[in-house]
Write a structure and sequence with these properties.
The chain has helices at residues 3-15, 21-28, 51-58, 63-73, 143-158, and strands at 35-39, 46-47, 49-50, 77-80, 87-90, 108-109, 114-118, 129-132. With 162 residues, it is an alpha+beta fold. α1 crosses α2. The longest helix is centred in the last third of the chain and has 16 residues, at 143-158. 36% of the residues are buried.
């Protein structure tokens, strides 16, 4: 499978998160703006990570270095620099735990929330883009890895041991 076929397969997988996948494709079109509003909760969820949290875990404020860290530590992550000073959204499996323990610092967005998801090729600003794009269909961050990153960032911010 070449890169274009892989990217189309990933987009098709993401579009299926929408009740009407054709709507996601329309929103991804140049006339649609290139970002589809996908419902969270069924196929995936996304904690809202303020950039300061990610930078504390990554040990850098450089966008490219932070993206490299996230690629190694997590997996697919969106970045939106237009909201709240910069926000990262790792896509992860819907959680089976009744309560998200990081709600105060990294709210979990799930059912009833829509997330702006760009086409897979969008990997640079302006606007929302993939800091770390999915590598294959079904590629999501492991919830335990997201939990560990948030815990590390909080401990680093408090000056406690990594």
């Amino acid at each position: 499978m070449d890169t274009r076929q892989r990217d189309n397969a990933i987009c098709e997988w993401l579009a299926r998160a929408h009740q009407n996948p054709a709507q996601a494709w329309r929103e991804w079109s140049p006339s649609g703006g290139g970002v589809a509003l996908l419902p969270l909760g069924r196929a995936f969820v996304a904690p809202r990570l303020p950039e300061a949290l990610v930078y504390a875990a990554a040990g850098t404020v450089d966008l490219q270095e932070a993206a490299a860290y996230l690629a190694q530590a997590l997996g697919p992550v969106l970045f939106d620099g237009r909201t709240m000073g910069g926000t990262y959204y790792p896509l992860t499996w819907p959680l089976t735990v009744p309560v998200w323990k990081h709600q105060a610092v990294a709210p979990l967005l799930g059912r009833g929330t829509y997330l702006g998801v760009p086409r897979i090729e969008r990997s640079q600003p302006p606007g929302t883009y993939w800091a770390v794009p999915p590598r294959h269909v079904g590629d999501l961050c492991e919830p335990a890895a997201v939990d560990a990153l948030i815990t590390l960032a909080c401990n680093t911010a408090r000056g406690t041991k990594r």
